[in-house]
Specification:
The protein has about 400 residues and is of the alpha+beta class. The chain is built from 13 helices and 16 strands.
């Protein structure tokens, strides 16, 4: 029996290795259109590969999978994050869980994952064909099973041949990206990091929390990347020109006002820019005071009036900027969209239209926020496909 895997990325290798471990007699060939494999794994997590997450802070999968959370809940019964953690450690890749619940190789190097896959592929005699672009099943007539693991297709061309077979395609659009903000007064603060913020798209329920980084082009950091994932389709529809609102503190509105009044009482003679009661970076605090009070930003605390306090509360809770475009997050990106989940069997990920054709990884309309959730989707869907192929032969 022979299986062809189209795509030499994370899902493709995980599928190949697990299929060979479940059924050693199966001949498995990976077809990769590029001249290298696992390139996205190599750059992920800043070269460290955030390979999964502890899910400790996840109470509902829709928090981390804006698209595909129901499918992931079902498939976690087959292979979940605990299974992935155990799998890598069993195959010689010790893992560590950071305080933010992101899981990395203990070596802090993505090559720990890459070398594991390549070593296992060689051991199990998985064939790897580079420079082979497959866009027709006619080229694979000698294979009993075919799995498509080609990853995201940002412009959609790579999915056309699958659409021609009758599969429904959810229009691919980028996800997990930074925001360009054409406000020079903000970008002058590049390098400033705020440990905990909430960002939102005004007029919607879309919001995300986490650290925020001000860059020379606008805004980045986990909070922005999460929001870009939740709002991927809306942002694409509006051509990446929407307002974004930032809440700079975790304190409640009433608490913010109380803190301001207490500061006015205890530190009355100090100037606003020199005393910051919310622990924000000093440059950012001074900037926010200029935004709220304009040329009066250097007044002393006791000189603040009721309207001044209201303005400061508003800027801390609802500081709004205009997104002027989409940035990129180094070489990492995720595509929202792909093969519609309506076109696959939710238990096996086999095509409903073409028998013995399967899908795994980002080619499916499943994507997650930053934090290791997309790799977990790759492991879970790939393992599901490997198990389904074996079950068909049992």
């Amino acid at each position: 029996m022979k299986t062809a895997i189209i795509g030499g990325g994370a899902a493709g290798f995980f599928l190949a290795v697990n299929l060979k471990e479940m059924m050693p007699e199966m001949e498995v060939t990976i077809f990769e259109r590029a001249q290298r494999v696992l390139t996205k794994v190599e750059v992920s997590g800043g070269g460290r590969c955030n390979c999964t997450n502890s899910f400790e802070d996840v109470t509902d999968l829709r928090m981390v999978y804006p698209r595909g959370h129901r499918l992931m809940k079902r498939l976690f019964n087959v292979f979940d994050y605990q299974s992935a953690f155990a799998w890598f450690e069993h195959h010689g890749v010790p893992l560590i869980t950071q305080d933010n619940q992101c899981v990395f190789p203990a070596a802090q190097d993505s090559h720990a994952i890459i070398n594991c896959f390549l070593t296992l592929a060689r051991r199990h005699q998985v064939q790897i064909c580079l420079g082979r672009k497959i866009q027709s099943l006619d080229a694979l007539q000698d294979y009993d099973f075919i799995a498509v693991t080609t990853g995201g297709s940002p412009k959609g061309e790579g999915l056309r041949w699958l659409a021609d077979l009758g599969h429904e395609i959810e229009q691919p659009v980028p996800s997990l990206f930074t925001f360009q903000v054409a406000d020079k007064s903000l970008t002058a603060l590049m390098g400033t990091v705020v440990g905990q913020t909430t960002v939102m798209i005004p007029g919607t329920k879309l919001h995300a929390s986490g650290p925020l980084l001000i860059t020379h082009w606008g805004m980045s950091g986990p909070a922005i990347l999460k929001l870009s994932s939740y709002a991927a389709r809306l942002l694409a529809e509006k051509e990446y020109k929407l307002p974004v609102s930032v809440r700079w503190t975790t304190a409640r509105d009433s608490d913010i006002e109380n803190i301001l009044h207490e500061t006015m009482r205890v530190h009355s003679s100090k100037q606003l820019p020199t005393f910051n009661p919310f622990g924000l970076p000093q440059r950012l605090w001074a900037f926010l005071m200029t935004r709220s009070l304009a040329d009066r930003w250097e007044v002393r605390w006791h000189e603040l009036g009721k309207k001044d306090v209201n303005r400061i509360v508003n800027i801390l809770c609802n500081d709004t900027y205009q997104i002027s475009g989409r940035g990129t997050f180094k070489d990492e990106f995720v595509t929202c969209g792909g093969i519609s989940l309506k076109s696959v069997n939710p238990s096996t990920l086999e095509s409903k239209l073409v028998p013995r054709l399967f899908f795994a990884g980002e080619v499916l309309d499943v994507d997650g926020v930053t934090g290791g959730f997309n790799f977990q989707a790759a492991w879970t869907t790939a393992y599901t496909v490997a198990s389904a192929i074996v079950s068909k032969l049992s």
